[in-house]
UniProtKB/TrEMBL annotation:
Swiss-Prot/TrEMBL keywords: Cell adhesion, Collagen, Extracellular matrix, Repeat, Secreted, Signal
Family annotation (PANTHER family): COLLAGEN ALPHA, PH DOMAIN-CONTAINING PROTEIN
Protein name per Swiss-Prot or TrEMBL: VWFA domain-containing protein
A Pfam family of this chain: VWA
InterPro entries in the record: ECM_Assembly_Org (IPR050525), Lysozyme-like_dom_sf (IPR023346), VWF_A (IPR002035), vWFA_dom_sf (IPR036465)
Amino acid sequence: MNISIKLIFFCLFANGISCQFCNSSLGHFSGQCNEISNCIGGAFISRNCSNNQICCVTDPEMSQDIFREPTYFNFSINSFLKFVGDTARNRAMYSLFSKALDDSKVDNCHLAAVYFTQAASETKLFTKFESDRSEKDIDTDLGNDQVGDGLKFKRRGPFPLTGKSNYILANSKLSDKLVINITEIPESLVLPSTGFLVGSWVWNENLYVLQNNKPAQKGNLNALVDGTYFNFTQITYSITSNLVDLKERSILYEKTVDELKCPRIKRGFGIVCEVQNEKGYAVPDCLADHKRPYCGCDGAKTERGCPYGFNSKNTCRNSPLIKCCLEKCFRGLDLAFLIDASDSIKLNNFVKIKKFLQNFVNKLEISENRTRFSLVKFSTDIEPISYLSNFTSKDSILNLIDQMNYDSGITNTGSALKFLNEEILNEQNGMRKVESGYPRVVVLVTDGQSNEDFNLTVKMAEEIKAKGVNIISLGIGKEINLKELETISSSLDNIYLINAFDELNLVLDNMIKTACQQPAKLILETEITSRVDLGDSKYFVFESNDTLNTSELTFEIENVKGRTNIYISDTDETPKNDSEYVPIEESNSTEVFIEGRTMEKFYSKNILLNQTNKLYFGIAGLSQENEFKIKILVRTSNSTNETTSNSTNDTTSNSTNESTQTSPTTQKPQTMSTLSYLTSFFTTTRKNNSPSSVRNFTALNLILPLITLVCFQFHVLFD
């Protein structure tokens, strides 16, 4: 009774709080109906509240006066509020989230991004800590064995606890930390402090970790977080048992990675599997409406299949997005490797680099008309091992790598890039002309930062990229200067980081995929002739300079032989999305018929430049042999039209402003809460000293207890 009376007085005198009382679904908690943004506590589902309100129950450990930041990784409150919204609830929520990060030993950028993404997705940005849906009352897998267990032990918490057996296990494991017995009062997980405490235990100990084709074991999901989309899908599948909202989680993960300035998401791969009687790897495929550079298979893949086998229910143990993929880089490249052989590398690790190079080359097709390979070793001195003109055979390249000696010395990166720019990346030594359409790629492998002139490193990297060369960087160990690699590399997607030389093979296939997908440079008014195999794609990029005064470009492609699909994007460097496909009906198309098949001969389409002044093109081969010509032309805007357009815009703007000033403002009628009305009445009587006002104020003092009593009786009847 005392609690009810306190709630009534709080209801009457706390500004903006509703007078409607409520109970949680199981009746363990009583609270007040409120907006979720104002609820500093557990947001319970309740039939007592209207559709846009929840039953808010105070959480003693949740307060705006308590401020805690994470210990191991700086996930700031500003970043947190940027995603979830700046509300009283979320400011109080941040400290509990920070404690959860510490409880799960979240100590690096990608781990923080994945942890936040999964917790925020499970709770609808921390607004909902319990599921709308009950589980089955009788379910042996969950341990539910009585009528009512489905509702009682339903899915709750940021990393949800589901089923009677899991509630019992969590209560036992956390008995020294829990202030409430969650098997007796399972709804306590809706209180954020309890939900995060139990959720951290679920993440640390009670979800399946699938790392090989042996039976999955429950363990710590931290073991799966490595910055790859492969393991992100595995973690999502472990938490949800489905991929219904994987697209939304992937988008939030991308945004969180950008906000926290993590290394870009890579594709990743899993166990060895078999495709067409050849060795492939398990990789994450792309969702139909969410194609990204970090997913998909550029080669043969199993449309159905479970690389990790089946569970006892005969369903895939791995995420359904995981497919067995066989990729080989048959696209032609002008590829140059720049290998660090300085003191810090050490001989045993240099041997591992050589093995990595040989594995890389084995995935390429080395020939005059496919990939040309160059290799330069650097420390104090610079030593060329192979030029692009040495395209005799794959075996000869492998032999040169095998004979390469370790020298030691300083990390002379700037001079190495200068040598590469002047002696390797030129037509005299085997680099093909821009008109041939071959991508130009440099791969830098290093374990440190420039020991000499940093400005020279930056200058040479810029000169190389100005030639249309794409630079990929592989940094090994903790002495890497990430800012330097970001400056050297063509994009953040082209940076790979590993902790040790033993991890080189973990990034091998991803780096091959990245190298093979690098775009060739398109130059204005320059026609490029190229080829693309059946089922393969070739990528191009056009980058406008600041002096190009144009608002529109014309993209032309002529199919000399075969058929192609064209994809265009101003953001995706490897465009594949259906939304980026250039429909034939929107282009000028001439059709010719060969052997009874329709072959689109010529496309022409006007395309606007975006703010980055970049356009990316993907050309996919549809026939057994495909040869095409591609060209970018300028369409200069009419200056008269621009002037007319600007004048019209100004007139429209003025007209809108005048309309805004003369239009009456429509306001919704305001509804006073009980407290607002009483406060208004009290203020009026204090300002007015007339006898009637004094009588009104005296009457108010007399009727307040009566109002309180009526509210209390109503609350008792309502309960």
